[in-house]
């Protein structure tokens, strides 16, 4: 039965709820864990941001139309959302550490697969990469809640900074890589499998934690899907992500049509994403020190909305300031969304399930954004109507964010199950 929402702080009186983070296993090393999380974060966006800068060359080589290209930019986000709910189940069975390691290798395989055997396999590899990112992304908030319960904003900001840096690197380097490989897009995209393999190797020390039988006791979480606050977190996550993936998927194409070269457009997006590093760390830090997160959410969404309209309509001579505003806004909206998952959950198990819900449903919703951009452009023959589309998304995200930013816990319960094996989550 769903518990009512409670203002913070309030003790839990139900004996079935685990309110105390489990102890660290003997192999716990915070330095290695932070380094591993940063390297993992670097790999959670190149699969998404590497395609847009070379989309024109890819379409020319494969013959993809605008709708198919829109599907290509939408597919990884959709698979990300569909696969996200699998993460808590996989972590319960194999442990969060082993799951993350295996999925990093699967991510590398998907990134390589999308560069071989033609357009059909391009879509298959893209789907595998998106699903892999969805599973790993769900695991990280639970790990933060479990291992760094007193520093949720700082730790979320650190790996979100890494995530933004990875996105910026892929956005800025993929087109130069294509030119360096004799104008071939396949090796330019395949290159991004290398960081994924490096991250998997760096994650190997964490596998010892599963060997020590961390979290042998099984748990289940009830009441989450009926909780209004959980849905506000989820909708905010989805709508702000929709805006982000519209940028990842289409901003270079928009800027090229406005008169920039593909390399220039890629650099504009790269710099904009790189500037997300500032608010990726600063946004959660400020949000966790305020009375609640509503003010920070409102500021970041206004910056995002203004930056989007500036990139659409401002003279090209004024493009860079608006790209900077866009980057600052989107870095904060996303990092605060991840921080809300940690802050709105009472314990690591609720955090893991809220992460799966908000990212699973949220990213499935977000996938509609880049697809809608392609459809709107095809129907209108212009990018101008996107101003209305982006405004609607921004206002809806603000409404959900003002609810999600209240200082409360979701009304979900963690219930002990009989021991299920040596490596539960």
Automatic annotation (TrEMBL):
Q: What is this protein called?
A: CynX/NimT family MFS transporter
Instruction: Tell me yes or no: is Transmembrane among this UniProt entry's keywords.
Output: yes
InterPro entries assigned = CynX-like (IPR004747), MFS (IPR011701), MFS_Cyanate_Porter (IPR052524), MFS_trans_sf (IPR036259)
Pfam families, sorted: MFS_1
Q: Cite the SUPFAM superfamilies for this sequence.
A: MFS general substrate transporter (SSF103473)
Q: What is the lineage of its organism?
A: Bacteria, Pseudomonadati, Pseudomonadota, Betaproteobacteria, Neisseriales
Does Transferase count among this protein's keywords? no
Q: Which GO terms describe its cellular component?
A: membrane
Per its UniProt record, what PANTHER family does this chain match? 2-NITROIMIDAZOLE TRANSPORTER, PTHR23523
Membrane-spanning ranges: 64-87, 99-117, 123-144, 156-173, 185-204, 233-255, 267-288, 295-316, 322-343, 355-377, 383-404
Give the top-rank taxon of the lineage listed in the UniProt record for this protein.
Bacteria
Q: Which UniProt keywords apply?
A: Membrane, Transmembrane, Transmembrane helix
The organism named in the record is: Chitiniphilus eburneus
Annotated GO molecular function terms are:
transmembrane transporter activity
């Amino acid at each position: 039965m769903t518990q009512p929402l409670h203002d913070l702080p309030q003790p839990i009186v139900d004996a079935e709820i685990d309110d105390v983070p489990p102890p660290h296993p003997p192999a716990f090393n915070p330095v290695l864990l932070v380094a591993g999380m940063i390297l993992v974060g670097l790999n959670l966006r190149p699969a998404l941001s590497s395609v847009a800068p070379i989309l024109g060359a890819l379409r020319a080589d494969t013959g993809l139309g605008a709708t198919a290209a829109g599907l290509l930019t939408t597919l990884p986000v959709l698979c990300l959302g569909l696969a996200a709910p699998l993460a808590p189940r996989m972590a319960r069975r194999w442990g969060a550490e082993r799951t993350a390691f295996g999925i990093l290798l699967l991510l590398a395989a998907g990134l390589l697969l999308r560069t071989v055997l033609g357009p059909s396999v391009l879509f298959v590899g893209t789907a595998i990469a998106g699903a892999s990112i969805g599973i790993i992304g769900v695991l990280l908030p639970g790990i933060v809640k479990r291992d760094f319960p007193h520093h949720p904003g700082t730790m979320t900001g650190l790996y979100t900074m890494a995530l933004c840096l990875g996105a910026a690197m892929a956005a800025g380097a993929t087109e130069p890589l294509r030119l360096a490989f004799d104008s071939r897009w396949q090796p330019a995209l395949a290159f991004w499998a290398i960081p994924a393999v490096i991250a998997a190797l760096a994650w190997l020390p964490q596998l010892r934690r599963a060997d020590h039988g961390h979290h042998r006791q099984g748990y289940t979480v009830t009441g989450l899907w009926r909780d209004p606050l959980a849905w506000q977190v989820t909708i905010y996550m989805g709508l702000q992500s929709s805006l982000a993936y519209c940028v990842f998927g289409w901003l270079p194409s928009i800027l090229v049509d406005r008169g920039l070269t593909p390399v220039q457009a890629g650099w504009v997006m790269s710099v904009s994403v790189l500037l997300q590093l500032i608010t990726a760390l600063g946004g959660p830090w400020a949000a966790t020190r305020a009375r609640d997160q509503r003010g920070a959410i409102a500021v970041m969404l206004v910056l995002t909305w203004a930056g989007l309209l500036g990139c659409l309509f401002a003279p090209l001579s004024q493009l860079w300031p608006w790209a900077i505003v866009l980057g600052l806004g989107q870095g904060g909206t996303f990092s605060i969304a991840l921080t809300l998952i940690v802050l709105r959950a009472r314990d690591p198990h609720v955090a893991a399930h809220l992460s799966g819900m908000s990212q699973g449903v949220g990213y499935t919703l977000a996938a509609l954004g880049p697809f809608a951009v392609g459809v709107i452009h095809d129907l209108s023959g212009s990018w101008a109507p996107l101003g209305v589309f982006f405004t609607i998304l921004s206002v809806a995200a603000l409404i959900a964010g003002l609810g999600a930013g209240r200082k409360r816990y979701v009304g979900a319960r963690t219930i002990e199950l009989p021991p299920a094996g040596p490596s539960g989550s």
